[in-house]
Design brief:
By secondary structure, the protein is α+β, with helices and mostly antiparallel strands. It is built from one helix and nine strands, in the order H-E-E-E-E-E-E-E-E-E. The chain has one helix at residues 2-22; strands at 43-50, 52-53, 62-68, 73-77, 90-95, 108-114, 120-123, 134-139, 144-150. The strands form two sheets. The protein has a five-stranded antiparallel β-sheet, with no helix packed on it. The protein has a four-stranded antiparallel β-sheet with strand order 1-3-4-7, with no helix packed on it. Strand 8 (134-139) and strand 9 (144-150) form a beta hairpin. The radius of gyration is 16 Å and the shape is globular. Mean pLDDT is 83; it is low at 2-19 and 21-30.
């Protein structure tokens, strides 16, 4: 009986993680991955943090809020950024905590969908609210965290 429970538990976990692969579509998941935005010239790092992997993913890299010489704001994922990309619904958020609370209005800001490893710049409409203290990498299809970064 214990073996059957362990097998069931294992397959349940696999099902949850693989559900990111097929993906139920929520509003954030309907976004297409943002095209690579080219940022030329120097950028000023306003906040930065190292990504901590969650949910047995290989998420790593740096999550930064930066501004360029023209005064435009971006979320930057650094050259060493990676996570589980078989999902198609890897979503980038700014958050007021290390846990994404989609049911709490004002506790997060959707940034973009990301579809590949490496450096990315995602434009923001303006300076992000100072209440956002964390960057979040999220699997929208399974509603599970892939990583978070405390921003300092």
């Amino acid at each position: 009986m214990k073996r059957l429970f362990n097998i069931s538990l294992f397959y349940s976990i696999v099902l949850i993680l693989s559900s990111c692969d097929s993906g139920s579509m929520k509003d954030a998941d309907k976004m297409k991955p943002a095209d690579q935005v080219e940022v030329t010239g120097p950028v000023t790092v306003l906040k930065t943090g190292t990504l901590n992997a969650q949910s047995n993913t290989n998420t790593r890299g740096m999550f930064q809020v930066v501004t360029n010489a023209e005064g435009k704001y971006f979320v930057r994922l650094t050259e060493d950024f990676t996570t589980k990309f078989s999902t198609g619904t890897v979503t980038v958020y700014l958050s007021t905590s290390d846990r994404l609370q989609l049911s709490t209005s004002g506790s997060f800001q959707l940034v973009s969908i990301v579809g590949k490893a490496g450096e990315h710049f995602f434009p923001l409409s303006g300076a992000p609210d100072g209440k956002f203290t964390h960057g979040i990498i999220w699997c929208g299809a399974a509603a599970i965290p892939f990583g978070f970064a405390p921003l300092n």
